[in-house]
Amino acid sequence: MDISAEKIRWLQDNVHRLDINEQLELLRDIEQHDKIVTNKESRTDFLEYVKLVWPVFIPGYHHRIMADAFERVAQGKCKRLIINMAPRHTKSELTSWLLSSWFLGLFPTKKIIQASNTQDLASGFGRRVRNLVNGDDGPQYHDVFPGIGLSRDSQAQNHWHTNKGGEYFAVGVNGRVTGKGGDIVIIDDPHSEQEAKQAERNPDVFDEVYRWYVNGPRQRLQPDAAIIVVMTRWSMRDLTGRLLSKMQDDDSDVKDEWEVIELPAILDEYTENERAMWPEYWTLPTLQATRNELPVTNWQAQYQQKPTSAQGAILKREYWKEWTDLNPPPCDFIIESWDTAFTTDTRGDFSACTKWGVFKTRHPETEIEINNIILLDAFKGRWDFPTLKKKIRDEMHGPRRADIILVEQAGSGISLIQELRMMGYPVEGSTIARGKRGQSNDKVARANAVVGVFSSGYVWAPPRRYSERVIEECHAFPYGDHDDFVDSTVQAVRRFRDGGLIRTEDDWDEEFEEDYQPRRAAYY
Q: Using one digit for the tens of pLDDT, what is the confidence trace for 185-200?
């Protein structure tokens, strides 16, 4: 029965005129009308569908965000989606179970590949999706999607077909997908606690999942297919990290452009507005107690989706100051800092260059002129020796000629220094001295040695793409996938510091402030 809103209002005003039998019949008609409306809404509104087929569902703020994203996928508006969220926040239920069944209801002729960390997990979700589509869990699914069910010969829990020719295939990470195709590929929590534990000693463990993704599901896509990755973060080298790193490093016009949704368990963390993302289920005190029990790196990665949180980073994102003027300031001295690796191998290290300038500002309290440094440019690539030399030569004839070209005087850098000196360029070898007994001289120790320059607020960067890449890589260090920009940055800042061109807040001695004059070191 199709009852208009106007008709319902009329009936409400005149129901007292009906006898009991007419009232009962009217009640049944209204219930049927409400059911028709709900079923219709559930076909277009994913969250309404979830509430209908999963009555005990407790909706939260993040579920609406997920639902909107899934609807864009179904509409063909989003082809690559990553959702990162904390454990036990219903990501698997909404994605591997309910999204799969909803999508097949809308498109019963299409194919789904659904992957979980193990085959047992994947098969478990396959069974739940199959039972829902088959009507084993009640009539709600068939009320929303009448006529949709399983084909008669499909009873396996990990591989079955709809009665319209669609296909569902569930597989564990590192499982074979040969011969299968997907109009939508769902990858749900591909990493495990065991992998994370192993990665503490061998970060390459995370690479296995990425290799499986590239060689398996990524090659099994149907034309115009979509990929959804929903997972808890573990490391900058987990699947999310590798996919985003690939997207960032790929300069081609045609590449996978990922939409990323990060859903931290605690919103506005460590502020007066700190609150739980899903207070209807996870209260703030419960989450705070969990936070107090976990190591900072684990909490920030798994619950806050920030594998390199402010607490875990050395060269923190917030230390950098943004230069908002259109043009950079006039610089008194420019350093071009190179971290070199002579290779064109796509699996090898990058050669990275950061260019820095020294400029003056006035101290906010003393009004004394002090030196600051600003990032003027940054780029990286995999180049052989002749190409790298040409790159440096082109930079020296560009608009911001450096006063010093800084190259680490070790390994491949030694021959480059010799070549550049013969070409007449002002190159300086950066020597990493041996640490004193009991002191470390590794990359972490070197970064810690210059962190005071950053935390004092003397390091600036313009709002440019190259700045974002350098800042993010520095913030990710020492847990990130790459550290080429970090090495170049630390080398440059260390040279500024050693040459007396920059000081930190701790260096200032009020007794000598007025007499201080920065000095410059020789080229080499």
A: 999 999 998 888 887 7
